[in-house]
Amino acid sequence: MKLTILGSGTSTGVPRLGGEHGADWGKCDPANPKNRRTRVSIMLESQAGSRILVDTPTDLRAQLLANDIHRLDAVFWTHDHADHCHGIDDLRPLRYGRAGPIPGYAGSETVRRLRQRFGYVFAGQEGYPTIVTLDNLDTVRICEGFKVDHVQMPHGPAKSTGYRFECDGKSVCYTTDFSEITRDMIDLCFRCDTLVVDCLRREPHPTHAHLGMALEFAEATQAGFVVLTHLDKSMDFAKLSSEVPDYAAVAYDGMVMEL
Predict the structure, then answer these.
(1) What residues form the membrane-spanning segments (predicted)?
(2) Is 88 left (phi over 0), alpha (psi -120 to 50) or beta?
């Protein structure tokens, strides 16, 4: 199974708009291309060639072009915050040439909110075909050869879905946007091969995991390897890479792992 980190940044990306020259890099070195981060998403690909996308961030078009992705077999959403779903229209060209819409899945509340906000995507409009079918996660256990399990995670006052994907004898867990660790989260990710985990910054945050919480979660799950993502402008790639344990790595846009 192949894991591609399409985007590794927080909701404003890195650099953030603003600053003295219109680009606020914070503590990140602008000379290091691994500090240039788009909004978070991943793609998983099986040995048979099936491709699953998790989230449709606002930078999705650029991410798909950068990674030469022109076909998807299914889409899963973690939640409906703008940085995770507002690139949904970029799925439209990937609908061309298909016999039907792209299958899509999310938690029940996310389904409700996505349908309310992007009705044309899921029902077509004015002669345009449906782009994605959207179903509740309770309807799927196997998708394109991937076994799929999930859990609802606290994300401040909201919820975000954490996922476990298993295929070709390997497992990847994707847990972004959470603010506390629950027993159900640990059970979902226990002894997975690769854990991709929320790690906004070093200091605690009301709606996201910080570095200490991310590593605490990694240790509790006994994950084989850990990738830190959803990084803000305080998290310089080289500096953070020098601080993390041997079993962990800092995500960057375009990072590819063959499991």
Answers:
(1) none
(2) alpha
